[in-house]
Structure formats: C-alpha cells, structure tokens
C-alpha cells in the first residue's frame, strides 16, 4: 500500500514541476525553496544537505511534514536534547556562520511503517524576524514550530515569540531587556487558518495543500487570517475542533518598522486519530450517536413535511428537543457518566418532555404554552445560526454574560415577531427544525459543517474555556445541499398553505 501511495505522490510532484531529491543510500540533497518528497524507514536514517547557500542568507528554516506518523529532525547525527524535534509537522532554524555555504540535517523515524514526507528549506535575510527566536518555554533555543493540541471542544495552538533579525556572526538582539520600538516587542503575529477539501483524508492531498502554507506570500493568498496578536498578548489561540475536517494553521510574524515578515512551521490536524480503534478519522461517530441521530432525523423528516397537519406528533418532537437539550447539559456538567449512558438518559428525558407537552395540549388545550415552546425552539436555531456567522467571533461575545443575554434576546425576538401569526410560526418551525435534524444525522456519518450551528452552542454551554475559541468552519456543499433540498420543498408547501388560507 505504501508503495502505491509513493507512486501517486511521485506523479503529483512531477506534474507540479517540484524538486526531487538527488538521493543515494542515506543521503538527500535539497534546493532552497523547493519541495521534496521522500520515504523514510526506521532502519534507514537519512542525511539532508543543502549546498551553495548565498552570502545574503542569514538563517535557514528547514521543515518536514507527514500526515500522522512521526519523523525526527536533528542538527546532529547523535540525537541530543535541544537540537532535535519529533512529530509530523516539525522544523529547525539554522543560524548561519560567516562564509558558510553548506548546511546539514539528519532525519529518521521510529515508526514501524515507512513514512511519506515532504520537506523544504527556506531562507531569510538579516532584516527578517526570526520565528521562535525568543523561545523561553520549549526545548529548542530557537523554536519555529507551532504546538497543536485538540480535544472534543477546541483545538489550541501555541508558539514561541519571535526575535528581530541580525547579521551573520552578530550577537542576537536581547529579548526582554526593553519593550521599546527598537526591540522585538514591536513585532506583530498574524494567525491563519486553511481548510482542506471536505471529506478528503488522503495523504497526497494534505502534503499538496501544506505547500500553500509554508511561505509568506502563499499563506496570505490561500488562508484566512483569524487574529492578529501583539507581543503583549499570549501566543496562544483556540479554535473550535472540527472532527474529521483537515485544517492547517500557520503564524506570520511581521516587523512593521522594516516591513519584513517570516512564517512559522505550519501545523495541521483532523481533530481525530487515524489509529484509534473507536471513532477514528476514517469512521467518525459512535454507534450510539448514529442510532440516536438517525431515529431523531426520521421523526424530524416526518415533521418537516407533515408536522403542521399532525399537531400532537409535532408537540412530541418539540417537547423532546426542549427537555432533552437542557437535560443533556445538566447531566454532562454535574456527572461523570459515560457518553453512551448520557445519550440513553437524554433520550428518556426527551421522550418524557414530549409526552408532557403533548399531554398538556390534550388535557388543558393551552395553545399559547405549546406555541411558546415551538417559537423558542425555532428562535434557538435562528440565534445559533446568527452566532455561526463571523458575528460569533467578535471579542465582545467572549464574555459569557454578554453572549447568553444576546443569544436569549435573539431567540425571544423570533417568538415576538411571529406571535401575531401563529400559523406561519408553526409551519416555519416544522420546516426549519425538522430539516435541520436531518443535517445532524448526516454529521454522524460524514463531516458536515452545518451541524456546528448548534454544536458550537452546546460546547459553549458545556465548557467554559470554549468562549475564547474561534468558530469558523468551511462551507460544506454536502450539508448545504441536504438542508436546501429539504427546506426548499417545505417552503413551497407552507407558502401554498398560507396563500390558500
């Protein structure tokens, strides 16, 4: 299998007119600014060499990438702390000595399977800032790497502060002696996010798209800038985790006085594991989630097209959502029960809520109470959609009080607007909420970004740290087509009903 992958990657590299390494046994020769594909095996470490380095180059940034297997890169043949990095997105900065024209690195892997890599050496001048040049937290003296960590809720990246550039053989500028405009404190950091094609978990695709995130001009042209940090800010940024969706992050450090910049080593994640036996990237979602969401979607699909005519069934559906949502948040925050147990208890609580709302109509006939619940569920979905837009990334909404008050006001506003026309409110709720339940079911089988309309709100209710995460997602055509098709037919139906009434 790995031979087939290597063949595909070789054809891709040749078609892109990219450099291939001049290699012999254990030896790789690189060219500045040229990407090189090569295979690395555990018994056969490689020596990487770069020749004919220009005299106007002050430092080199050599970086190497693989999909999920680890590769070790080192300045020395004997691996030593402080000169070695291991991972799937790693790089080293080499400060050149006067008159130096050749640079060497050493590459190896401890993985049992061969590792497909792509690597590139980049050069910078003495005017360019040095990524990670003021590192005080990580192992390397100069650390240009982005450290990435993820969980169910958020993906967090960290990086070391940069330093001002300096000439070959000169002493590096001090990092923390002063905070004036002549020091590294004038530097700015632009954080970029790049989404891989939806549903594409192939190694070839990742290594190809990583090439757009290594150099400053390509990063600015291809990725989306999500934040700008000053030297006074913490060099940590959080994002909403997107299970099964490939994302590449990079940071560009910019010197406003000299108008020069340099890029860190890009880091990527799928927010999942390729090697996990339960819920890995290839087969996302638990069995319990698929069963629950599929049953919920079948009921929602019925409500989408027939809910307005089957009033009691709609009330059960709305009551199920109303009580089930709050019950799941409650037991998740207050207990340490396993996920499958919480899901079963949520289904039971939701069913009780549906029966209670249906029974209240049957026993008391209180239309306003029932429509209040219907309007709040529709308002919740509309409010969630509002914060799914770039509005949700505004700094003011990182305060929980501001967020939840604004969220509640939007939900209540929808209810108030349609209180005078309950028929339209009910038909809209059936169509929008019912069709969205289908989108949630699709997400348990394949990645759909539209599911994060409500999932981001749920995460914020469950995890207080999520308030600082950026919630940008790619536009996924699969989910959009699913929802548009369901909602398109529904809108036609309710419009005909409204016109005929």
From TrEMBL:
InterPro entries: TM7S3/TM198-like_dom, TM7SF3
Domain of life: Eukaryota
Tagged with keyword Cell inner membrane: no
Primary location: membrane
Membrane topology: Multi-pass membrane protein
TM ranges: 291-308, 315-331, 343-362, 369-389, 401-420, 427-447
Domain TM7S3/TM198-like: 295-478
Key words of the record: Membrane, Signal, Transmembrane, Transmembrane helix
Signal peptide: 1-19
Cell location: Membrane
Protein name stated in the entry: Transmembrane 7 superfamily member 3 isoform X2
């Amino acid at each position: 299998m790995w031979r087939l992958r290597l063949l595909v990657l070789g054809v891709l590299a040749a078609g892109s007119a990219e450099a291939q390494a001049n290699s012999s046994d254990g030896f790789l020769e690189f060219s500045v600014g040229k990407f090189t594909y090569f295979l690395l095996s555990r018994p056969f470490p490689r020596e990487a060499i770069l020749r004919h380095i220009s005299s106007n180059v002050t430092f080199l940034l050599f970086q190497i990438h693989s999909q999920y297997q680890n590769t070790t890169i080192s300045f020395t043949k004997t691996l030593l702390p402080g000169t070695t990095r291991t991972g799937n997105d790693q790089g080293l900065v080499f400060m050149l000595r006067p008159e130096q024209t050749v640079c060497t690195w050493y590459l190896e892997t401890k993985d049992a399977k061969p590792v497909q890599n792509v690597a590139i050496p980049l050069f910078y001048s003495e005017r360019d800032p040095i990524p990670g040049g003021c590192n005080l937290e990580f192992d390397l003296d100069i650390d240009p790497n982005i450290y990435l960590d993820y969980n169910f809720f958020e993906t967090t990246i960290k990086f070391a502060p940069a330093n001002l550039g300096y000439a070959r053989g000169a002493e590096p500028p001090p990092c923390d002696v002063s905070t004036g405009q002549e020091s590294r404190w004038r530097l700015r950091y632009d954080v970029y996010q790049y989404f891989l094609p939806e549903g594409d978990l192939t190694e070839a695709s990742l290594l190809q798209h990583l090439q757009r995130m290594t150099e400053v001009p390509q990063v600015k042209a291809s990725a989306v800038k999500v934040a700008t940090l000053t030297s006074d800010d913490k060099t940590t940024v959080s994002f909403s985790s997107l299970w099964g969706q490939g994302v590449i992050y990079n940071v560009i450090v910019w010197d406003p006085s000299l108008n020069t910049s340099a890029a860190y080593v890009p880091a990527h994640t799928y927010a999942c594991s390729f090697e996990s036996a339960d819920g890995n990237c290839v087969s996302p979602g638990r069995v319990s989630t698929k069963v629950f969401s599929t049953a919920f979607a079948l009921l929602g699909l019925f409500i989408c097209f027939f809910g307005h005519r089957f009033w009691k069934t709609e009330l059960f559906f709305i009551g199920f959502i109303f009580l089930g949502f709050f019950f799941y948040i409650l037991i998740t925050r207050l207990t340490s029960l396993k996920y499958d147990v919480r899901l079963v208890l949520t289904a039971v609580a939701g069913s009780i809520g549906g029966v209670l709302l249906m029974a209240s109509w049957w026993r008391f006939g209180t239309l306003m109470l029932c429509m209040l619940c219907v309007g709040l569920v529709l308002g919740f979905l509309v409010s969630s959609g509002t914060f799914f837009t770039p509005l949700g990334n505004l700094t003011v909404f990182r305060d929980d009080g501001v967020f939840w008050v604004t969220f509640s006001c939007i939900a209540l506003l929808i209810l108030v607007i349609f209180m005078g026309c309950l028929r339209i409110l009910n038909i809209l709720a059936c169509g929008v909420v019912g069709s969205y339940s289908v989108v949630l079911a699709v997400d348990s089988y394949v990645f759909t970004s539209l599911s994060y309309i409500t999932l981001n709100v749920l995460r914020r209710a469950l995890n207080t740290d999520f308030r600082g995460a950026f919630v940008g997602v790619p536009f996924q055509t699969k989910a959009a087509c699913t929802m548009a098709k369901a909602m398109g037919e529904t809108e036609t139906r309710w419009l005909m009903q409204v016109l005929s009434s």
